[in-house]
């Protein structure tokens, strides 16, 4: 066993890390790392470029054993917030990876001080003990949950109020309307920036499927609810990201209908389960069941 650490090279490693995440997900067993879909979403989210994070991709660490990836440490939307992915056979790398993160993936807090925060799954007592021994403290805010929806063979009927329609972006990919529902759906004020570069970037993701991205169209013709859905054909799982409903059209069952339609379509492709990285009541009411939390472990550095 010869384990080597090296920096991430986007052109060479993007798919390699994605494949590593696919391989370390085992259907029907415990989820230990990100889904590949979240990795893909990260790299096609406009935040990566708007915040200049694309300049720091070489800070992502990769651990290899004879050329095969066995561990990854990366940020997502902020430097200082770290996610660790490990082949379970190499769990002894956790301390080394955490040391690397402290030296290479730090951020600056609101107090102007360097810090590091690493997400650790709630049942990973080994990693928790390592983090505690290195001076990290377990936080109780900004938890990340994971919930799942078991897709039935006979899918429940999906209903909408009269005059509203379910469509996919394969039917109608009006990016101005997509831009508006996502802007308003995440509670931003006013009208969105008409620049569609960010929307086009997301749709350029290799596994982005317009037929799985669902919108609800109002009688006015506007898009008023949106569900982004991703599908991993290797493991046959769906992944929900993002979901948004225009505040003028909430509490009407539109978001529920969009999510269920996306899941239903994944089921038609062979998926037996769909995941979402939250435990919000909205999803639990639809039929998702919470699996676990990831807690942030924080350390202020000198």
From TrEMBL:
Name this protein carries in UniProt: Acetyltransferase (GNAT) family protein
Q: What is the originating organism of this protein?
A: Orenia metallireducens
Q: Which residues form the N-acetyltransferase domain?
A: 164-302
| Keyword Glycosyltransferase on entry | no
Q: Which keywords has UniProt assigned to this entry?
A: Transferase
Tell me which stretches of the chain form a coiled coil: none
Name one matching Pfam family: Acetyltransf_1
- Give the GO molecular function terms: acyltransferase activity, transferring groups other than amino-acyl groups
């Amino acid at each position: 066993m010869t384990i080597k650490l090296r920096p991430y090279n986007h052109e060479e490693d993007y798919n390699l890390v994605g494949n590593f995440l696919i391989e370390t997900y085992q259907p029907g067993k415990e989820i230990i790392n990100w889904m590949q879909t979240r990795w893909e979403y990260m790299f096609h989210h406009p935040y990566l470029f708007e915040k200049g994070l694309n300049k720091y991709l070489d800070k992502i660490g990769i651990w290899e054993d004879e050329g095969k990836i066995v561990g990854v440490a990366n940020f997502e939307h902020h430097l200082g917030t770290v996610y660790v992915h490990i082949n379970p056979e190499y769990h002894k790398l956790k301390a080394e990876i955490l040391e690397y993160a402290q030296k290479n993936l730090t951020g600056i807090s609101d107090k102007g001080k360097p810090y590091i925060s690493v997400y650790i799954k709630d049942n990973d007592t080994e990693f928790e003990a390592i983090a505690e021994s290195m001076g990290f403290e377990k936080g109780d805010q900004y938890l990340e949950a994971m919930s799942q929806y078991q897709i039935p063979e006979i899918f429940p009927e999906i209903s909408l109020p009269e005059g509203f329609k379910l469509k996919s972006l394969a039917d109608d990919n009006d990016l101005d309307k997509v831009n508006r529902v996502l802007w308003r759906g995440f509670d931003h004020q006013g009208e969105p920036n008409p620049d569609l570069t960010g929307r086009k970037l997301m749709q350029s993701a290799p596994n982005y499927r317009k037929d799985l991205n669902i919108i609800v169209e109002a009688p006015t013709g506007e898009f008023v609810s949106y569900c982004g859905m991703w599908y991993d054909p290797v493991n046959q799982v769906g992944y929900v990201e993002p979901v948004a409903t225009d505040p003028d059209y909430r509490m009407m069952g539109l978001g529920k209908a969009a999510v269920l339609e996306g899941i239903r379509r994944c089921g038609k492709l062979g998926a037996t389960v769909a995941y979402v990285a939250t435990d919000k009541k909205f999803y639990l009411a639809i039929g998702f069941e919470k699996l676990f939390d990831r807690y942030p472990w924080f350390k202020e550095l000198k």
